[in-house]
Amino acid sequence: MIDIPSKLLENAVNEISRLPGIGKKTALRMALHLLRKPPAEARALGESIIRMREEIKECELCHNISDTSRCHICNDAGRDPAMICVLEDVRDMMAIEQTRQFRGRYHILGGLISPMDGIGPQDLHSASLFARMDTEDIREVLLALPTTVEGDTTAFFLFRQLKEKNIRITALSRGLAVGDELEFTDELTLGRSILQRMLFEDTLQQRH
Questions:
Q1: Global pTM exceeds 0.70
Q2: What fold characterizes domain 7-55?
Q3: What percent of the chain has pLDDT over 70?
């Protein structure tokens, strides 16, 4: 138990320690660091967090986070509008972008199907994905979901819904180990998995 001599400091430590991966000792170091800085720096930090939480938007097309109603990737005329990469969340999109091997657009599901947690297709941004198939000239959908039970379940659900469309449905090559999360995969491995992507149907055959 850390003996903190100030209630104000203790409150700050408790709030900082709510962040993922931040324990009480690390939170205390951060709070004490802020105390040593000019008040303007602490105020700028607090205001930037408040503005982010209150003003950030969700892209109306792909559900990426954005400062405007449509994100910079969806607005980029240099991207290939005929290819969509389907991902679990924004962190995966950032990981894919780091590889510089994908020049299409994205669709963020906002989660994965998980019956154990009560999460079904209706809880994801899957309906808007299917709607894009009817309103955009899409030729390929890359299902870049984690190699977990939930990721495979979600990918198979999407495949069954999309296979009647006249589009190519692909998946990352199995260079990723089972259980891998995209955001923690190194750029080289992830980039190679994109370049060597394969038909989703072929990945089903590999599993049996």
A1: yes
A2: Helicase, Ruva Protein; domain 3 (1.10.8)
A3: 93
